[in-house]
Amino acid sequence: MSDNIIFNLIDKLEAENSLSRDEWKTLIGGISVEAMEYAAKKARAVADRIYGKDIFIRGIVEFSNICSRNCYYCGLRAGNAGLERYRLSPDDILECCRSGYEYGFRTFVLQSGEDPYYDTETICSIVRRIKEEFPDCAVTLSIGEKSYEEYKAYKDAGADRYLLRHETANEAHYQKLHPENMSWKNRMRCLKDLKKLGYQTGCGIMIGSPYQTIDCLVDDMMFMQDFKPEMIGLGPFLPHSDTPFKDAPKGSYEMTLYLISLCRLMLPNVLLPATTALGTIKPDGREQGVLAGANVIMPNLSPVQVRDKYMLYDNKICTGEASGECKACIEARVKSVGYQVAITRGDHIRGEKI
Ligand code: SAM
Ligand code: SF4
């Protein structure tokens, strides 16, 4: 594929924020060092125009690694008998937020497996307590597939954002990644409900998940172009040794960076993290993610004693440091590429092109 065709498509994406299915296929299939550099330069300029030199940080509290689901790729899957399980109490979670607030975090992300122990009222009361104690902070939930009524209850309790990666926009691919009792249609229903309820909604995928093809990635871009999420989580798939996909190859670092840039050009205002998985696959992956157009980093606020038990994939980074060290490390990394950590909620900026 000639570089010119690819550069023209990148220009078109920047100008129009959307492409046809065939154009996406050409653009994604046409990845090269030159295409990555060209897309990253434009994506970074777009992010700078909208969010300036600020990189938003989110303190993530991984409050339970107990999960009733069995996604084939994930180390927390119920079928992984080798994992020592833990739950944090509401008081423990509040304590994590207190230390996070001291360090300058103004968004708390509560993430877990699908753990029925935390029923609707428990989650609502945790959200209410955080919002009461830290009214200047945003609360993001990432606790999986729930009913409309449950999502509404969390929202009424004060939750601002919800992260639920769609994992793949291709139904047949979804079924290869999940057992039969999980449904792509329900995942999509959840995302639509979240949007309808007014959450800043995040979807996303693992790059290079088993059986993923270029056509799957095209489906993902077409879906996101239409859905217009406020946040997109993109990270490479990384195998976990106690899952059915233990021998699957890890995802492509380069494709992850390239898609970060293309997502920024497609949805200029989107909140786009440089994920922990990106930092796991390459030591400076998150810095390179920022340079490719990402504007969010999510350091860990969980107590150090439980960090190494939230093992989605092998060799996950940031399991040893205390929260304060994580924050200092991220600040230095962000600074090393010419950006600064912002002490703010870092909400999605609404509206059309800026
Ligand atoms: N249980 C909730 C859910 O599934 O939405 C939230 C927690 S789940 C661990 C968060 C995300 O981790 C998933 O959406 C998935 O994309 C990612 N993940 C799980 N296993 C992974 C792996 N082996 N490599 C990379 N990312 C993984
Ligand atoms: Fe559970 Fe989420 Fe892991 Fe699936 S991805 S097994 S729902 S924690």
Explain what the structure shows:
By secondary structure, the chain is of the alpha/beta class. 45% of the residues lie in helices and 12% in strands. The strands form 2 sheets. The protein has a 6-stranded parallel sheet with strand order 2-3-4-5-6-7. Strands 8-1-9 form a 3-stranded parallel sheet, with helices on one face. Helix 1 (3-16) crosses helix 2, helix 2 packs across helix 9 (214-227) and helix 3 crosses helix 10 (253-266). The longest helix is centred in the first third of the chain and has 19 residues, at 33-51. It is globular. The mean pLDDT is 96.
How far apart the termini lie comes to 32 Å
Largest sheet: number of strands, sense, barrel closure: 6 strands, parallel
Strand content: 5-15%
Radius of gyration: 19 Å
Query: Helices and strands: which structural class?
Result: alpha/beta
H and E order: HHHEEHEHEHEHHEHEHHHEHHE
Reading side by side through the largest sheet, how are the strands ordered? 2-3-4-5-6-7
Give the overall shape: globular
Could you tell me the number of beta strands?
9
Mean pLDDT: 96
Helix content: 40-55%
- Helix tally? 14
User: Which regions contain 5 or more consecutive residues with pLDDT less than 50?
Assistant: none
List ligands, each type once: S-adenosylmethionine, iron/sulfur cluster
Topology:
Elements: H1 3-16, H2 21-29, H3 33-51, E1 54-57, E2 59-64, H4 90-103, E3 107-112, H5 120-133, E4 138-142, H6 148-157, E5 161-163, H7 171-177, H8 184-196, E6 200-207, H9 214-227, E7 231-236, H10 253-266, H11 276-281, H12 285-291, E8 296-297, H13 304-307, H14 323-336, E9 340-342
Parallel strand pairs: 1-8, 1-9, 2-3, 3-4, 4-5, 5-6, 6-7
Bound molecules: S-adenosylmethionine (SAM) and iron/sulfur cluster.
